[in-house]
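--- STAGE predict ---
source: upstream dedup step, 1 unique chain passed
mode: sequence only
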Amino acid sequence: MKARLLVFLAVLSLMVAGYSQAAHADAKCATKDCHAKLLDNKYVHGPVGAYECETCHTVVGNHKFKLAAEGADLCYQCHDKKNTMANVHGPVASGDCTGCHSPHSSPYKFQLLDEGQKLCFRCHEDNKTNQKFVHGPVAAGDCIACHDPHTSPNKFQLIAPGNELCFTCHADKKAEFAAGKFIHPPVADRCTNCHSAHGTPYKYQLLASVPELCFGCHKDKREQISKVKVQHKPVLEDGSCINCHTPHITNFAPQLKAPGADLCLMCHNKQIGSVSNIKAWLDANPDKHGPVRNGDCQSCHNPHGADNYRILIDYFPPEFYAPYSTDKYALCFDCHNKDIAIDEFTTTLTGFRNGDKNMHFVHVNKSPKGRTCRACHEVHAGKQGKHIREKVPFGKLSYPIRFTKTPNGGSCIVGCHVERGYDRVTPVQNR
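--- STAGE serialize ---
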């Protein structure tokens, strides 16, 4: 009987021992007694969820473990290498995958240690979201809309090079740039020459306010605009440079919003101070001055400002009467013969002559009362030939001019004198 009892106890002991070994084999690390929280998060690392702890940890003793490999080498046993391109994110380059990812579980996708840009700002300074104007992806906390968090062939781990990155969202600009004839050089180089990719105090994330941003390259314009005696109003108003220029692309050099006179007439289609409605005047007067006919306002006016009356590029007397000198008519003589009023008699300098008597000399070359060109000619356009004025301005008064052209000359009736004629072939004997 005693022998049977001993055999039973021996068998029972073996059974208990076998059960104990089986229980140990089925034991999980993430139990209520051990690593209970490893499965509590929304996103769980694959091996952890499959209870394959020994994929990463190797048992070296009683509840003692070591990693199966060090740093990123452990991750690369399963994951593709993330350090293969020219530009590698710092933590990736140092093999510190757990600088961003939890190896077990996390409330955040990809087992990230924090949400969105909060993770980035654990290392990077948070000086990008507190600006007045913030780039959309930055405002949304979506750093990886532009940056690859691991590696990239592009600087700063950008997901695409240069402007191609911007065009992934700004497709309208890509189409616009492809269609235009003249692209602003900084734009062709890279958008970030003018715009911050993150945020600035200035609208459109510009790096500075306009015109200061423009003056960063166009230093000559800064100096000119600051020193001129007569300033052009659009240069000083809100918008400044971009009132006339497009900062990206255009069909009109130099980056103008419209060609030549069309641009000027976008503003000069109404009375502006003492300046009349130029568009209405041009529409009503068909005999146009050459530069106006060619749409070239800049032949006479400097759109950025000048030292002369009416922002003229060269001097012209603003008065009705002015003592004559060639220098006073520098503006006109940029195109017209500068000797036109020098000689009293000529057969070549001008067609405005009675025989060989130079009628320009008669009218203009006087001291002190030389009549300026605009005493007789409209500077923009007129209804009579040679854009002769319909009225001569004289202080608060104006006198009508009736000009009649003939094959070899013409005649003129004006408040200044009775009717007088001139003929290049047969001189007229005027009273």
